[in-house]
User: Which sequence fits this backbone?
C-alpha cells in the first residue's frame, strides 16, 4: 500500500466514504447558497458556513464521535466571531 493509500484508508475510518461525504456536503451547501441571506454574507462568513457543512458531512458520513470534527465546527464559528468583534 502506498503512503497516499494509507492516508486515504485512515481518513475513510473517520470521514466515511468520500462519495457519501461529498453527497451530503454538496446537498447542505446547495441549500445554503439557495437562501436569500446568502448574498448578504461576507466571504469569510460564506467560507465558514461551507466548511461547517463540510465538517457536518464528515460527521454524518463517518465517525460521529471523532472529536476533531466537532472542534473544527466551533473553530470556524470562532473565526467569524473574531472578525465581528469591535
Assistant:
Amino acid at each position: 500500500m502506498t503512503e497516499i493509500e494509507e492516508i486515504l484508508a485512515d481518513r475513510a475510518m473517520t470521514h466515511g466514504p468520500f462519495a457519501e461525504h461529498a453527497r451530503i456536503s454538496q446537498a447542505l451547501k446547495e441549500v445554503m447558497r439557495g437562501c436569500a441571506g446568502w448574498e448578504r454574507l461576507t466571504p469569510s462568513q460564506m467560507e465558514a458556513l461551507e466548511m461547517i457543512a463540510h465538517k457536518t458531512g464528515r460527521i454524518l458520513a463517518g465517525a460521529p464521535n471523532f472529536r476533531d470534527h466537532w472542534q473544527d465546527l466551533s473553530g470556524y464559528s470562532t473565526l467569524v466571531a473574531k472578525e465581528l468583534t469591535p
Summary: DSSP finds four helices and no strands in the chain. The helical segments are 3-15, 18-33, 43-61, 67-84. The longest helix spans residues 43-61.
